[in-house]
């Protein structure tokens, strides 16, 4: 079927802006030149990003292609529950301000590149550091895959508008070309490429969000019309999309879902800055003050995310766009359809490109974070690497990881990638005691903390298994308790922390004493 105001002008704008994106990615290697044969220059931008670039870089991790697709789609399917993304982002930046400046300081003082570098010396435990690194790698793969899912939705919408049909072959070829270009300039420019292209991407994203949230309500009866139509038609829409949840409560949250809403917000906030890409971006800051300033301004992106979530309701004010989502049979087309039916053709090209590179930029940052972990905290633990070899291996690993994620999406259904990402978010939270608590106390024993991590991982898997009909399909990350549905990561984390603390008390009682490899002033004082 044809899809709104999509034509060859749309395609031309898309291609022209993508060409600018590519040029910026390769040019970035010349920006603030450094020795890119060193891993901290390639993988952390030489630790020379100012507050504005830190703001854009971390914002690039928040406003991703999948965020553009998943949040409005979730609001369409689940109503108010999916607005948990709004407080989660606000709380997440609070967590970041409490933890990232301390991690930045000790990393600069000690030359760390990853969180696992810190964990290894803080706890004097190589096994725990490897466990933290591997958890980050496992959690990041489906996260990158989901960016590709979001990019696929944009390509599918464009093909539907241009040809009336969606060709998976054409879409896959386009994705492959885009990832070859991304891999090339990431190999050449490292985090500098992600930072510079992130600025370009975020400018386009903000233009898209602000334009749609202003123009569409003014042109289609405002949010009053959207909420009215949602109340009347949400049950039929969900039935048509094979999401039989009955009438969705858009205007308020059911009391039964309050524990789910709160625990999803809190658990997601705790997880956000444990992901390797978030830590990697934070450690790239030029100094602690600029990191704090850039992070403190990130709630502006939270406002943008709140506006974006409203797209899932706003589409009810545009009947043709809603019909297109139903015809295409997937909630992932909410934002592409809304834009295609309400904005001029040239703007559709700009918006689609913004969403598309909204997957590429985070994918680059995530792959760099994973490469740093695998090389420094896994491979380097078993063989000696010279600095140049270490950086080269990280570049190669980053490239391979991008295409592994791409192949993952080509081979498995998109819904499976989404299901694994739910699990990945639960797993990464189990590294909190070793990373976040380790920044504030040296009195956690390494082996007790490892036991807590292992217990948290095991319990996470068991609860997900139980909550999802024996892994038949992972549809939920919530577990029913007497208090109501609770996010599984918080349940597992509570057990994790108790075991780490109790184990440390026992270890201290039998003669263990904290490692002195990291002095307290190295955590709180800049060089």
TrEMBL record:
Molecular function as annotated in GO: transmembrane transporter activity
Family matches, as Gene3D superfamilies: Sodium/glucose cotransporter (1.20.1730.10)
Membrane-spanning parts: 6-28, 49-69, 81-103, 123-139, 145-166, 173-191, 203-223, 257-276, 296-318, 325-344, 350-375, 396-416, 422-440, 447-465, 485-510
A GO cellular component annotation in the UniProt record: plasma membrane
Subcellular location: Membrane
InterPro entries: Na/Glc_symporter_sf, Na/solute_symporter, Sodium:Solute_Symporter
Membrane topology according to the record: Multi-pass membrane protein
Principal localisation: membrane
Keywords: Membrane, Transmembrane, Transmembrane helix, Transport
Similarity section: Belongs to the sodium:solute symporter (SSF) (TC 2.A.21) family.
Name recorded for this polypeptide: Na+/solute symporter
């Amino acid at each position: 079927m044809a899809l709104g105001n999509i034509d060859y002008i749309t395609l031309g704008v898309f291609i022209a802006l993508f060409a600018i994106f590519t040029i910026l990615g390769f040019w970035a290697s010349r920006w603030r030149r450094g020795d890119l044969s060193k891993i901290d220059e390639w993988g952390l931008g030489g630790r020379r990003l100012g507050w504005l670039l830190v703001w854009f870089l971390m914002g690039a991790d928040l406003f991703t292609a999948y965020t553009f697709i998943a949040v409005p789609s979730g609001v369409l399917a689940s109503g108010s529950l999916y607005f948990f993304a709004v407080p989660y982002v606000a709380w997440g930046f609070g967590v970041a301000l409490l933890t990232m400046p301390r991690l930045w300081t000790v990393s600069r003082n000690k030359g760390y590149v990853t969180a696992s570098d810190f964990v290894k010396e803080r706890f004097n435990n190589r096994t725990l550091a490897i466990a933290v690194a591997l958890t980050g790698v496992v959690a990041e793969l489906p996260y990158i895959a989901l960016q590709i899912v979001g990019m696929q939705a944009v390509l599918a919408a464009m093909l539907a508008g241009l040809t009336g049909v969606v060709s998976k072959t054409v879409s896959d070829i386009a994705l492959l070309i885009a990832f070859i270009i991304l891999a090339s300039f990431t190999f050449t420019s490292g985090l500098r490429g992600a930072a510079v292209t992130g600025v370009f991407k975020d400018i386009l994203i903000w233009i898209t969000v602000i334009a749609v949230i202003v123009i569409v309500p003014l042109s289609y009866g405002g949010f009053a019309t959207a909420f009215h139509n949602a109340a009347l038609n949400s049950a039929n829409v969900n039935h048509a999309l094979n999401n039989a949840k009955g009438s969705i409560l858009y205007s308020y949250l059911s009391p039964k879902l309050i524990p789910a809403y709160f625990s999803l917000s809190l658990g997601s906030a705790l997880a956000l800055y444990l992901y390797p890409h978030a830590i990697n971006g934070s450690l790239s800051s030029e100094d602690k003050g600029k990191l704090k300033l850039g992070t403190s301004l990130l709630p502006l992106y939270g406002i943008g995310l709140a506006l974006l979530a409203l797209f899932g309701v706003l589409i009810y004010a545009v009947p043709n766009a809603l019909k297109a989502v139903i015809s295409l049979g997937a909630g992932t087309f909410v934002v592409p359809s809304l834009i295609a039916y309400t904005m001029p053709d040239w703007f559709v090209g700009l918006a689609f490109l913004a969403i598309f590179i909204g997957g590429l930029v985070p994918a680059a940052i995530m792959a760099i974070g994973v490469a740093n972990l695998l090389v420094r905290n896994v491979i380097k633990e078993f063989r000696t690497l010279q600095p140049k070899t270490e950086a080269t291996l990280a570049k190669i690993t980053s490239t391979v990881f991008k295409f592994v994620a791409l192949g993952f999406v080509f081979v498995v259904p998109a819904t499976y990638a989404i299901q694994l990402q739910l699990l990945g978010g639960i797993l990464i939270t189990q590294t909190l005691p070793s990373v976040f608590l380790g920044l504030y106390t040296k009195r956690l024993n390494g082996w007790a903390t490892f036991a807590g991590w292992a217990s948290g991982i095991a319990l996470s898997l068991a609860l997900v298994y139980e909550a999802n009909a024996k892994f038949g399909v992972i549809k939920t990350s919530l577990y029913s308790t007497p208090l109501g549905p609770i996010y599984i990561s918080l349940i597992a984390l509570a057990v994790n922390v108790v075991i780490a603390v109790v184990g440390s008390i026992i270890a201290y009682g039998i003669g263990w004493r904290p490692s002195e490899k990291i002095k307290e002033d190295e955590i709180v004082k800049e060089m």
